[in-house]
Design a protein that fits this description.
Layout lengths: L2 H14 L28 E3 L4 H10 L3 E3 L15 E3 L7 E4 L4 E5 L4 H10 L2 E2 L11 H6 L16 E7 L5 E5 H11 L8 E8 L1 E2 L2 E11 H12 L4 E6 L5 E10 L10 E2 L2 E3 L23 E2 L19 E8 L3 H9 L2 H4 L3 E9 L14 E8 L3 H15 L5 E2 L9 H4 L6 H11 L8 H6 L7
Parallel strand pairs: 1-3, 2-3
Antiparallel strand pairs: 4-5, 5-9, 6-10, 7-8, 7-9, 11-13, 11-15, 11-16, 12-13, 12-18, 14-15, 17-19, 17-20, 18-19
Length: 450
């Protein structure tokens, strides 16, 4: 079995393991890991409710528990010493054409939702780089796609329902609850178990994807705004070598009689074959390129649903900096290129619009992200991350909540002006700390393990 087939097979096994039994007795057995296999959860039991009523009953019975989504987070955010709850069975999807919204259950993934919406003539404003992730988990952690005018995935949330620590259902909506809603959407799992989300949708659209190779950093320095504004969603990839961007992925909405993409783009040349961000990986895992139009849900992600995304065996870190200082931040990291390169698979640069969600990494700040996909070498990566974080400190860089970082609470606290209000909101819905875990206690509440 070659490496690619091994990754495809092992990824499928990880994604499908231990999700088949009923909720009655829960499930015990070998330890569960996250999608990439770098993190092993401490919880011995996985409950699998088949209804919201069963979720409520479980919350009332358990002293500590956490929702477990598609397991794409690379850290302890979904871990607990109590029980984990999989909402995979809550997979309802209902469109309301009058309000242009769709109601989705807490277990729905974007891979399920995208084709469903498209069949009915609707779409979401954006998607992340892979469709395998759950809607609820992505919104809870402010996961994002790309595009100067596109907010992260949580910005499409119009309403949410979750089971609080007392087992009762709380409902919040954008038009009714104002600040409380803005504080609850990116909730990091601290408020309860989200059982239903209502998302804004729009008429469906088609997208084409064109890739360019070898963009110089000099061109990026002088044309960064133009480059990131050149498509609906733009991603730049670099290995930090030779002072260059190795690939530019431009995803554009298909317009009638629109011009053909140029063969050159700020000195970069249009690719003549389909590419993977990693030069030695097969592009069969990637969504269609070469300017071939297709449905939004099959072009906005980088990776195809039925294939192992990215490398498969990897670690990830990501930092959000103010977009207007993006090039400065890139240059600060490039100073570490010789330390980063031995452990790096690839770095991706993207932009995201500002939003009003309290704990969003783009709160009140148009952002550029510097995303690192690492080799599965945690001891080495753990030594490099503090150096990167120190280089990015002048830019008030916010780390992605679902990826690996080493910033302590004392460094995170000043980055979120609404953190005290968020702490109060969490205490209101979970006064006894039923949904707390080590991640929340350390990074949000500033305490030790719990």
């Amino acid at each position: 079995m070659d490496k690619r087939q091994f990754l495809k097979t092992s990824g499928t096994l990880i994604a499908g393991t231990m999700l088949s039994r009923s909720a009655t007795g829960g499930q015990r057995g070998s330890p569960r890991t996250n999608w990439a296999g770098n993190y092993t959860y401490h919880s011995e039991r996985l409950d699998q409710p088949r209804s919201v009523h069963e979720v409520q009953a479980m919350v009332k019975r358990r002293s500590h528990l956490k929702a477990l989504g598609s397991r794409h987070s690379f850290n302890a955010i979904a871990d607990t010493t109590g029980d984990q709850v999989s909402l995979k069975a809550l997979d309802q999807m209902v469109i309301d054409p009058k309000t242009r919204t769709v109601i989705v259950g807490g277990g729905v993934t974007y891979g399920q939702l995208g084709p469903y919406l498209d069949r009915h003539g609707y779409a979401l404003h954006n998607l992340a780089s892979l469709p395998h992730i759950s809607v609820a988990g992505a919104c809870a952690t402010a996961t994002h796609g790309s595009g100067n005018q596109n907010g992260n995935l949580a910005t499409s949330v119009f309403a949410l329902e979750f089971v609080r620590a007392d087992g009762e259902i709380a409902s919040l909506s954008r038009d009714r609850d104002g600040d409380r809603f803005a504080g609850a959407v990116v909730h990091l799992g601290a408020l309860g178990i989200v059982t239903r989300l209502t998302l804004n949708v729009e008429p469906t659209y088609r997208v084409r994807q064109v890739v360019y190779e070898n963009l110089s950093m000099e061109h990026l320095q002088h044309h960064l705004d133009e480059i990131f504004a050149s498509g609906y969603s733009v991603s730049l990839f670099t290995d930090w070598q030779h002072h260059r961007i190795t690939q530019v992925w431009i995803k554009s909405r298909v317009e009638p009689d629109g011009p053909e993409p140029p063969r050159e783009f700020f000195g970069a040349t249009r690719a003549t074959r389909k590419l993977h961000p990693l030069a030695d990986h097969s592009a069969e895992n990637c969504t269609e390129q070469m300017g071939i139009p297709g449905p939004w849900y099959d072009r906005l992600p980088h990776f195809r649903l039925n294939f192992v995304p990215s490398s498969g065996a990897e670690l990830q870190s990501e930092y959000f900096v103010p977009r207007e200082r993006g090039y400065e931040a890139i240059m600060a990291v490039e100073e570490l290129r010789d330390l980063v390169k031995p452990h790096l698979l690839i770095t991706e640069l993207r932009t995201i619009a500002a939003d009003e969600l309290w704990m969003s990494t783009c709160y009140h700040r148009p952002s550029m992200t510097i995303h690192f996909t690492w080799k599965p070498e945690w001891p080495e990566v753990r030594r490099v991350l503090p150096m990167i974080e120190e280089k990015l400190a002048p830019f008030q860089a916010r780390p992605h909540w679902g990826k690996l970082f080493t910033l302590p609470h004392s460094r995170l606290r000043p980055l979120y002006e609404k953190l005290p209000s968020y702490q109060a909101l969490a205490a209101q819905h979970d006064p006894g700390g039923r949904f707390r875990n080590e991640f929340l206690n350390s990074n949000i509440f500033g305490g030790g393990q719990g």
